[in-house]
Amino acid sequence: MIGCMRLMSLPTTVAKTTLNGISFHLHSKLGIGTKPTFLLFRVTERCNGRCRMCKVWSKPNPREMESHIVDTILRSNRAFLDRINWVSLTGGEPFCHDDLDGVVRSIAEHCVSLRSISIPTNGMHGSATEMKVRSILSELPADVCLTINVSIDHIEASENDKLRGQGALRNALHTISSLSHIDDERLLVGCLTLISPANVGNLHAIYHSLRTYVPYVSFSLVASSDFFCNEDTTLFGGLTKEERMLASQFLEWLSHRHPRYSYVNSNMSEILISGRRKFPCVAGYKSLFMDADGTILPCHLLPREFAIGNAKTDAIRKIWLSSRGDVVRRTLRSLPECRRCVNLCDSINIGTQEFFHFACHTIATRNFANIMRDLMALPSVRDLV
Prior knowledge:
Layout: H1 2-30, E1 38-42, H2 67-76, E2 86-90, H3 100-110, E3 116-121, H4 127-139, E4 145-151, H5 157-164, H6 168-179, E5 187-195, H7 203-210, E6 217-221, H8 241-257, H9 262-274, E7 287-290, E8 295-297, E9 309-310, H10 316-320, H11 323-332, H12 336-339, H13 347-354, H14 356-364, H15 368-376
Parallel strand pairs: 1-2, 1-7, 2-3, 3-4, 4-5, 5-6
Antiparallel strand pairs: 7-8, 8-9
């Protein structure tokens, strides 16, 4: 019965996402803004980790947006943010925020089309994360899901701790174990592994080991940006040509093993080989980044010189649809940082808002119908607008 319901809703979903794609491409062609559907929000720069690939923990005066300011901003911009379906709360370490559940409460109240919140974590808080997640879930409506991605880069403690800090693996596994005690169908806990020279030869072993703890493991590439305070990092975290080939082969294997994520993994695989991003980006149109000090940018990986405005002083609608915003959007088309960008933080937004590249890719790989049915089974993709 459930399968029939998904099949019946598939044409409607395709129709909606097609219209979304037409709208996005028209706005992109003209270089003008439209209401965002994805919000990436750095709630704090505070961090209790010591990751080698990210040095935000070294900032002497980390910024954090207090929960009452978050509420003021979201309340006053409620009408313009009424199409936000997906929110990702990042840091620093998001669970270092003094009132993360208060932040979530405001998001749930003022983002009226909310479907999903995702939070990456280094897992260093251990069992304290469980209490915080329980509190966060109590703030969310029954139809909004919560995804927690715990960062683990190696299955050997000594190697993982070199990358993430002393005790990182032990604490991360403790966090996963604690979260497994929460019996709530809205909660999904997974792992995120950054591919680097330190683990590229062990990706299969890492995947199979982590799958014994969580239902899914996602892989990503190291990005270089002042957001991570790692501007000097070489492309793809310093992977050699041979290591890039090895990682590419693993991602292609992963694409066949998990068709639902084939779009993401296949495109990362292609980036590793070509060194250039060939798939679209909806940053500045459907994706919006707000920093811990209120600064608004199209994307978190862009230098601060591309800031459009500040939500503490101006309405987000005024900022996003300003002439300054249009100038920045048109600049992104030829920006070297964008041409080699490895970021896929809003891949679900690409699939449902840009759609055409996503559809062509999945049809070519004979995965379109299966992926669309899988997406329909996810609470975060229902009732698309």
